[in-house]
Design a protein that fits this description.
With 510 residues, the protein is of the alpha/beta class. Helices cover 57% and strands 13% of the residues.
Length: 510
C-alpha cells in the first residue's frame, strides 16, 4: 500500500485548518461532518478494503455509538465518547465468531441481519432509545463547535497516519495474503480468523466513535442513524474514494457530504446527478479517487518487494521428525489416501511420485491441515497435527508451497521463497519444477541441496523423476492413495510395481 507523502498530509490537514481560520459556522459544520464520515469509512476500510469482506453492519454500529453517547453523556460527560467505542465494539465482538466463519455473500447477509436487529431495537426499545422520537437533551455534556471539530479531526488524522504506517509494511502484506490467497496465508502461519475478528472489532469501534461524534454534532439521535442509508453512504464513499488507499475514506467523505449540497439546485433530480457523478468517478478511477489523483500527479507506484530465497539459509531448529501412521482420506466414494504411513527426518529430502490422481497433493494437503484426515495420526516429534488448523501446523514448523502461483504478479519462485522464509523445519513442495527451464531446474536442485545442508526436511512432489533421482535421499511412490514403494531412488525406479504404475499410465495416454 502507498505511504502518505507530504502532498496527502497537506490535503489531510487542510480542511480543519480552513474551518478554524476562514470558514463560517455552516462550513465548519460541513467539515466536522466530513471528518465523522471519514472516520466511519476508515474503520470500514479495515474489513472491506484490507480483507475484501462486504460488511453491511458498519452503519448500524455507527448508530450504536450514537445512542450510547447520547444515553451516557448526561452522567459521564465527555467519557461518553469512550462508552460509545465500547458499546459498538461489544456487539461486533459477539457477532464476529459466528459471522466471520461465513464466506462471500453469506457473510454480507449475516452482517445485514445484524444491522436489521440493531435498527429494530432502536425503533421498538422505547424505554431505552425513545423509539421514533429518539433521544435529545444531552448535547451540552459533549464537545461542541470548534472543540468538536478539533477532536474529530485529531482522531481522523491520527487514524489515517496509523493506517498508512501499519498497512504500508508487513501487516499490509499479511492482509493481502488473507484477502487474495487465504490458503497461502494459512500455510505461512497467518491466522486469517484472528485477522478478521480484529479488523471487525476495530472497524466497529471506529464506527462507534464516529457515531458518538455525530450525536454531539446533531444534538439528537433517532432510529434513522441506524438505518441502511447510513451504510450505503459509508460503502459508496469508501468505494469512490479508494477502499485501501489511506486517503480513500477522507476523499469519499468529502464527496458524500459536499456533492448533495452542491447539487441542491437540481431539486428532486439531485440524487440522479449524484449517482451519475459517482459512476463517473468509478469508471475513471476503478481503484478510487485517491488512486486516480496519484496517477494524474505522476506519483510512483507502491513497490511490493518480491519474495526471494535468502543467500544464506539459517540452520534449522525445531522438530526432528515428521511421522504419518495409517492416514486415510476419502472424498465421497473416492478413497484418496489409504493407510499411508511414512517418516521423514530433518535434513532429508524425500520425493513423492506417482501417476496423476494417485493422492500426492492430497497427502500434502492432509499433512499441512488444508484437508483433514479421516483417520490416522500425523506428528511432528510428539506434537499431533491431525486436528490442528493450518496456521497452527505452520507455527509448529511445517511450510508449504503450491503447484501454481496463488497471487497475481508472483513469479515462479515467489511461493517457494515464502515457504522457505518461515524457517520451518519441514517443507512440503508441490511441483516446484513444473514448467521450469533446464537452468531453473538446476537452480532448484542446488537450492534443495542447500536446504538439506541447513538441516531442513523436504517432501517434494514432481513429475521430473530425473531431477528427484539426483537430489532425493528416498522416493515414495503412491498409486490410488496407497504407498507401493519406498526406498533409494534407483531401487524405487526399478521396482516392478512402480514401473507397472507409470507404464500403465503412459500406455493409456498413448
Amino acid at each position: 500500500m502507498r505511504a502518505l507523502g507530504p502532498f496527502w498530509i497537506a490535503i489531510l490537514l487542510l480542511p480543519p485548518v480552513l474551518a478554524l481560520t476562514v470558514l463560517p459556522p455552516f462550513g465548519q459544520r460541513m467539515v466536522v461532518l466530513v471528518g465523522i464520515y471519514a472516520l466511519m469509512g476508515l474503520g470500514y476500510q479495515l474489513v472491506f478494503g484490507q480483507l475484501g469482506a462486504l460488511n453491511l453492519a458498519q452503519g448500524a454500529l455507527f448508530g450504536v455509538g450514537a445512542y450510547a453517547a447520547a444515553l451516557a453523556a448526561p452522567a459521564l460527560g465527555w467519557l461518553a465518547l469512550s462508552v460509545a467505542i465500547v458499546a459498538a465494539a461489544v456487539p461486533a465482538a459477539i457477532a464476529a465468531g459466528p459471522i466471520l466463519r461465513l464466506q462471500s455473500h453469506y457473510f454480507a447477509l449475516a452482517t445485514l441481519a445484524l444491522a436489521s436487529i440493531v435498527n429494530l431495537v432502536a425503533i421498538h426499545a422505547e424505554a431505552v432509545t425513545g423509539g421514533a422520537n429518539g433521544v435529545s437533551g444531552f448535547a451540552s455534556a459533549l464537545p461542541r463547535g470548534s472543540v468538536l471539530l478539533a477532536i474529530v479531526w485529531a482522531c481522523l488524522v491520527m487514524g489515517v497516519l496509523a493506517y498508512s504506517r501499519l498497512f504500508g509494511g508487513r501487516l499490509g502484506e499479511e492482509a493481502r495474503l488473507v484477502r487474495e490467497a487465504p490458503l497461502v496465508a494459512a500455510t505461512l502461519g497467518i491466522d486469517g480468523g484472528r485477522w478478521r475478528v480484529a479488523a471487525f472489532i476495530a472497524g466497529g469501534s471506529l464506527a462507534g466513535l464516529s457515531g458518538a461524534f455525530a450525536a454531539a454534532l446533531n444534538g439528537v439521535v433517532s432510529p434513522d442513524v441506524t438505518g441502511f442509508p447510513v451504510m450505503v453512504l459509508c460503502l459508496t464513499s469508501v468505494v469512490v474514494g479508494g477502499s485501501r488507499h489511506p486517503m480513500g475514506a477522507v476523499l469519499g467523505a468529502v464527496l458524500a457530504v459536499c456533492l448533495p449540497e452542491l447539487l441542491r439546485d437540481f431539486q428532486g433530480a439531485w440524487l440522479l446527478v449524484y449517482a451519475a457523478a459517482t459512476l463517473a468517478v468509478v469508471l475513471w478511477a476503478p481503484g478510487g479517487l485517491a488512486e486516480g489523483i496519484d496517477r494524474l500527479r505522476g506519483a510512483p507506484l507502491p513497490v511490493r518487494p518480491e519474495p526471494a530465497v535468502p543467500e544464506r539459509l539459517l540452520p534449522a531448529v525445531g522438530p526432528q521428525r515428521l511421522v504419518l501412521a495409517d492416514v486415510a482420506k476419502r472424498f465421497g466414494g473416492v478413497e484418496a489416501l489409504s493407510d499411508v504411513s511414512l517418516a521423514i527426518e530433518r535434513g532429508e529430502i524425500v520425493g513423492l511420485i506417482g501417476p496423476n490422481g494417485s493422492g500426492k497433493t492430497t497427502l500434502l494437503n492432509v499433512i499441512c491441515g488444508l484437508d483433514r484426515a479421516d483417520s490416522g495420526t500425523i506428528k511432528l516429534d510428539t506434537a499431533h497435527l491431525e486436528r490442528l488448523p493450518p496456521h497452527a501446523i505452520a507455527r509448529h514448523g511445517l511450510g508449504r508451497s503450491f503447484q501454481s502461483n496463488m497471487l497475481p504478479g508472483d513469479t515462479r519462485s515467489a511461493g517457494l521463497a515464502r515457504a522457505i522464509s518461515t524457517h520451518a523445519a519441514f517443507l512440503l513442495l508441490d511441483e516446484p519444477a513444473a514448467g521450469a527451464t533446464d537452468r531453473e531446474r538446476e537452480q532448484l536442485a542446488s537450492l534443495l541441496r542447500r536446504l538439506r545442508d541447513a538441516g531442513r526436511g523436504v517432501v517434494i512432489v514432481d513429475h521430473d523423476i530425473d531431477l528427484l533421482a539426483r537430489v532425493c535421499d528416498r522416493l515414495i511412490c503412491l498409486d490410488r492413495g496407497k504407498v507401493i514403494a519406498v526406498g533409494r531412488p534407483a531401487d524405487v525406479r526399478a521396482n516392478p510395481d512402480v514401473r507397472a504404475s507409470f507404464l500403465g499410465l503412459e500406455e493409456a495416454v498413448a
